[in-house]
Design goal:
The complex is a heterodimer of chains A (309) and B (138). Chain A is an all-alpha fold and 309 residues long. Chain A contains eleven helices and no strands. Chain A has one domain (2-306). In chain B, helix 2 packs across helix 5 (123-136). In chain B, 43% of the residues are buried. The chains are: A mainly alpha (309), B alpha/beta (138).
Chain lengths: 309, 138
Amino acid sequence: MKIFYILLYFVAALLSFSIYGMLAMWVDRKVTARIHFRVGPPWYQNFVDFIKLTGKEVLIPEKANVLMFVSAPVLGVIAAAVAGTTILLVLQNNISFAADAILVIYLLTIPSLAVILGGSASGNVLASVGISREMKLLLGYELPFVCALIIAAVKSGSTTSLGEIIQFQQQNGKLIGSLSGVIGFGLGVLALQGKIGFVPFDLAEAEGELAGGSFIEYSGILLGLYKLTKAILLVVGPLFLISLYMGGINFSSVAGVIAGLLKYFVILVIFILIKNTNPRLRIDQALKLFWGWLTLFGIIGILLALAGW
Amino acid sequence: MNLKTKALKKSLWVYHMSGGSCNNCDIEILDCLTPKFDLERFGIVLVGSPRHADVLLCTGIVNKKCVERVKEVYEQTAKPCVVVAIGACACSGGMFRDSYEMGGPLNKIIPVDIYIPGCPPKPEAMIAGIVKVLEKLK
């Protein structure tokens, strides 16, 4: 019976993440359009895109490994939603365990792995260039992302439990109020930008040069599932950062939910501004940025956190 | 009309295919996708792969080397899809109709849904053509 309730909770979380994610994608498209002095798409555009993709033909290439090709997008959606559900259980029901922040970091890796698996299963040359970039990018942004987690963990008394990190912030003020907190938050934002595949780091699916990159052979509902993964990550990633650095979301009162939405919008706006003011980086530049400057900042942040700043 | 066709009408993803054109129509297509005309407000987006596309914009007389390629791209496109012949060359061959390299016009190779003539057609003419495609979709 308990399993049934957990499954029901998961499905509800998956649905709400999808809806919020698609609305967030719309905010991104609309703001981008306004920056270009355009009108931009209507609010239901991403839902319409998804419904249209469910009605299209699914083509499976001759050289593809069919099982891997079909299961990879499903894997990505489920992993992203499980990561989100883990965070939501902490925020909503206070169900937390010893190292769930590390679990979330592992789960957030799986959508990128799904892109790599699906791209390599399609047997396309351009897709293989795309996945090689995605792989390097994954190795790149994980390091600053882990630094961001370590800073939050050190600041809140050496714990990797999300529940305890949030509790610490409720008692001692939000982590973003401190110098190392600002550094960790910035690292987290940039790493998530790479994870979601927003513009400075969208080189894995570069439309101009790689014709869609890793997704080149995907059509119909399978392509829709990749778009859905991206939408879910756009909710789950900021939710994780809110839990680590901005004290989480208080679901028990209306004011708490509104404050949580405001926090989410601040992060979303930062994403969109970075996206619209930066050109796409080459893969070597992206790696230099992630492994060079950002890791350096990460180490400085950890040292500052250890010193109590 | 069912939900999926309605959704298709609101979200046409465009793939741009050149069958040996002089590039003038291609430049006008790019004009059409610039912020000035803002086709994204109707959900029209340029995509990089024919697998993602709902609309194939084909330009140029399809020359003999391009015939096989054009056929292949059409077969790779996920159906339902709409084929639009853009420019005088794609519609009829235009001034190159007697050329030794002529492999087309386009409607000899793949089924064409709508013709937009002009050398090159203006972006406004293309938008008018797309609106007619929308009426045609059932």
